[in-house]
Amino acid sequence: MSYDMWIILTGALVGAACGIIGTFLVLRKMAMIADAISHTVLLGIVGAFLVSQTLEGPFMLIGAVITGLLTTFFIQVLDSSGVQTDAAIGVVFTALFSVGVILVSLFARNVHLDVDHVLMGDITFIPFHTIEWNGMTLGPKAFWLIAVVLVIDIVFITVMYKELKITSFDPAMAFALGLPVTALHYLFMSMVSITTVASFDSVGAILVVAMLIVPPSTAYLLTDRLLFMILYSAAIGAASAVIGYYIAQWLNVSIAGSMASTTGILFLLAFLFAPQHGIIAKRLARRLSVTES
Amino acid sequence: MKTAVNVEKITVAYKKTPVLQDVTFSIPEGQLVGIIGPNGAGKSTLLKSILQLVPKTAGDVSIKGKTVQQQRKLIGYVPQRGDVDWDFPTNALDVVLMGRYGHIGWFKRPKKKDKEHALSCLDKVGMKAYADRQISQLSGGQQQRVFLARALAQDASIYFMDEPFAGVDAATERAIIALLNELKKQGKTVLVVHHDLQTAEEYFDWLLLLNKHLIASGPVSKTFTTDLLQKTYGGKLAFLSSS
Ligand SMILES: Nc1ncnc2c1ncn2[C@@H]1O[C@H](COP(=O)(O)OP(=O)(O)OP(=O)(O)O)[C@@H](O)[C@H]1O
Ligand SMILES: [Mg+2]
């Protein structure tokens, strides 16, 4: 397969995985926590590197899960001891992230792990780091990493669909039914963490938030059903990646930036033209009801 | 008569200020119970602490002689309507189906018979025609009915309802009360947070008068007295004028 094809495919999988997981982030009103996690997992990546001396996928995922859970836990602790939620997020986010930055500059200077790369991602180089097996080249590591994570995400959402739904809609009711609401919350945050890390190579820490939040918000405008929101969000995420790639080629600009901007453009389109929840449809409906009465 | 709910000396505090102190009562099975008290009296907090949704500083709760944890399946809860996100992408039937989740079990999907059961519960509250309606497109009273249908779908034997009459019209209120009486006839116990003193005497068998402390708990004939009501509401007025 051509380099371009690998880049596009990897980007599309990132868009789909983030779109799926992001749907529940948006519904749980946790966009800012996602932003925090997308940065603090840097600490997890460095930690995993220091322990294992490699940047292999499984170690990165484990490191990500650990820091993702720590982030969630610390925010929870501050929050429940009386700190405002947004301040709690800000404190934990910057504290853990800065430790990560320091560790990178201390220990990991020589490896392919500079802060720029983690923050901005660099999908252009993805095809050069490949997986070999029995002398065969199986394709880019980044592709396989996000493919595995996407499968994990899909299995997770399928198996836990009704549990995720009720804990997002009505956590009190879920608790009253005897569901382990807190454990589910942490499990979900682990999924957010591994999805974030697996997306880093492509879009980086800053823009992964766009992939996590914007496609679900777009899908939210297009449907009133949870299942469709998930599916649309995945499709919109993948489409943003593909369209963004071509726009980047055409204008010769950053691919990651272009993908993220595309999510924004699609959101704007839905915001204006969505059949029920778009503002044009709403205006028309209002005008109709005015002329009718 | 057997005891449905037994509460022993519970105290609840949010961030150190106690909002419920030393509340003790027990409620016999098959009663329709009104929980009455001024705003901020701790009525919602009482329900939430019984269901372990907020931590207690002290005290014990038992449901039919066992812990709440052991009796989850017997308990139905109708939260205050403002407690959930009505813009959530889901329809009325789906919300009612959530009442079945405790019976369906982990990882499994609702079956056809769960859906039929949920539909029949919607029917009982007069909302069958709205099964496919997105929940944000329901009126406040209709949302309240959906919540009620969800509680019915739980097939519980003890119900805790937080202001099910808030924002519903008189006809709906009558319909809900008829439904609660039906539950009572089936031997179920229903605890209802209620604000309207005009109707309290007519609706309920038993009253809990609450204002941070328990003022009284007992059959309506013994508790619906000017004296006790003064004590329940008057304390608050005195507090207001002194501050
Ligand atoms: N999450 C919370 N954190 C801090 N204080 C709280 C919280 N929830 C309730 N309170 C306080 O606890 C007290 C009791 O509240 P509660 O909601 O139980 O009252 P209520 O009797 O249900 O009132 P209402 O009739 O207005 O619904 C109030 O003073 C309220 O301010
Ligand atoms: Mg209340």
TrEMBL record, chain A:
The residues forming the signal peptide are none
- Has keyword Lipid biosynthesis? no
Localization in the cell? Cell membrane
InterPro entries on file:
ABC_BtuC-like, ABC_TroCD
One GO CC annotation = ATP-binding cassette (ABC) transporter complex
Note the coiled coil stretches, chain numbering.
none
Q: Where does this protein chiefly localize?
A: membrane
Membrane-crossing ranges are 6-26, 33-51, 57-75, 87-108, 142-161, 168-188, 194-214, 226-247, 253-274
Keyword list, A-Z:
Cell membrane, Membrane, Transmembrane, Transmembrane helix, Transport
- Which Gene Ontology BP terms does the record give? response to zinc ion; transmembrane transport
Topology with respect to the bilayer: Multi-pass membrane protein
Q: Which family does it belong to?
A: Belongs to the ABC-3 integral membrane protein family.
What is the official name of this protein in its record?
Answer: Manganese/zinc/iron transport system permease protein
TrEMBL record, chain B:
One Pfam family name is ABC_tran
UniProt key word Transport: yes
Which stretches make up the ABC transporter domain? 5-237
GO MF assignments = ATP binding; ATP hydrolysis activity
What keywords is this UniProt entry annotated with? ATP-binding, Nucleotide-binding, Transport
Q: Which family does it belong to?
A: Belongs to the ABC transporter superfamily.
UniProt cross-references to PANTHER family, sorted A to Z: IRON TRANSPORT SYSTEM ATP-BINDING PROTEIN HI_0361-RELATED, METAL TRANSPORT SYSTEM ATP-BINDING PROTEIN TM_0124-RELATED
Protein name as it appears in the record: Manganese/zinc/iron transport system ATP-binding protein
Query: What species is given as this protein's source?
Result: Alteribacillus persepolensis
Upper lineage? Bacteria, Bacillati, Bacillota, Bacilli, Bacillales
